[in-house]
Amino acid sequence: MQYTPDSLWFEMLETLGETARNDIYLCQAIPRTLNDEAFIIAVPSDYTQDEIENRFLSDINNVLAKRISSDCTLEISVDPSLAVVPEFEQTEPNPEDNTPQTTGLNPNYIFDNFVVGRSNRICHATAYAASQDLGGEYNPLFIYGGVGLGKTHLLHAIGNCVQEADPKRKVLYVTSETFMNEYIDSIMNRTSSQGFRSKYRTTDLLLIDDIQFLQRKEGTQEEFFNTFNELYKRSNQIVMTSDRSPDMLENLEERLSSRFEWGMVAEIDKPNYELRLSILRQKCEDQGFSNIPSEVLNYIAEIVTANIRQLEGTLVTLKARASLLDEELTIDLARSVLNDTPTTITGGSRKKSVTPEVIQELVATHFQLNNGDLTSAKRTKVLVYPRQIAMYLCREHTQLSLTDIAEVFNRQNHRTITYACEQIEKLLEEDETKKIIQHLTAELA
Length: 445
Ligand code: ADP
Ligand code: MG
Prior knowledge:
By secondary structure, this protein is α/β, with parallel strands linked by helices. Helix content is 51%, strand content 11%. It has 18 helices and ten strands. It has helices at 5-16, 18-21, 46-67, 121-132, 151-165, 176-188, 190-201, 218-233, 254-259, 273-287, 294-303, 308-325, 331-340, 356-366, 381-397, 402-408, 414-427, 431-444, and strands at residues 30-34, 38-43, 73-78, 141-144, 171-175, 205-209, 237-242, 264-267, 343-346, 349-352. It has a five-stranded parallel sheet with strand order 5-6-7-4-8, sandwiched between helices. Strands 1-2-3 form a three-stranded mixed sheet. The two termini are 50 Å apart. Bound molecules: adenosine-5'-diphosphate (ADP) and magnesium ion (MG). Adenosine-5'-diphosphate binds next to helix 5 and helix 12. Adenosine-5'-diphosphate is lined by residues 109, 113-115, 120, 147-153, 279, 308-309, 312.
């Protein structure tokens, strides 16, 4: 294959993997020249050159040997005109600045339409309290929990509530991915660096979603650390969400994750039956679905247990299916649609597919555990064994990859799953575990 410097660099980053693709120093390099002896890239500073050489040189040279020729090596030239990262500038708010702000807020996510139950009561209460007392007791506020449980909704609700009370307050909602992308843009383009810092460091309320994304993004972590300190120093409010607790954030600098615990850390859990039903009722009201029989809502609340997003999705799907068929949404229709999806074809017969949620529910019931125990970070003995059983069953009975399974269990690393499976395989030689697995497998069939 004929490479241009650009195409080779692109492929290089792909080959080196995620860490390289997100590396703040590699991101600043510009591919310049390619021939059989050398691949030349330009970087803005000696420091960037050192960083790349120290951490990536041998990997890059290995790729060059394979793709170009065994004599081809990386050369890095320093070109200061590429980018200048200004030293920290004072970013006092400019009182003359009347430009309308973009808050990133979704007006549909408010406290009024957030249904409260046992699993989200504390999160809701602290979020509301933070919105009433910016920079107070709950600063920073860290909300964590699994997908689709309402973290993003609460984050927007805080922002909307603050804006409504005082439109002059500077509120900013971003995902941590957006934060990173804007940071990288600001490094690449010297004119916007000041803008980036003043945007983030002068908000009264910074809402930053899915902070787990910053794991392994060293450069962005550093910038976020500085932003955090600057806001905190001025008693400006910071609210963050994550799919795991601060101590489970791996590859995040200790000094950063420990700061997340300074204010309040609140967990949002899976909804129980009562909350699922109340949410369904509220969604029917919001959407104007007035004639859905309550036995249909009860049925949905019973079988859709994983999260609230799925609950909403199921309701909308059923409603759409009924209107497509021009039928009333009856319990029979709901049963037939929901038993029908998701399905897999196994050995020619249609079989209800086994999802990780089904497995988790089954295992949790068998061992009499609470919602969320299997996916929690707790490592007590009573949880470890059932969790390993559940992980093993996921590997055996779903199509998911080990990485997917790790994600379902809120684990960072797929090796956790491999380890769990090995443990269970060993224990399968004993009668007790063998019986449990046989029993659970029969339940899944
Ligand atoms: P997360 O950010 O935790 O993945 P979201 O906040 O995106 O979850 O919530 C998923 C969907 O469920 C959204 O449409 C949200 O409005 C809805 N939702 C979540 N929790 C509640 C709740 N307690 N009351 C009403 N709707 C909720
Ligand atoms: Mg979210």
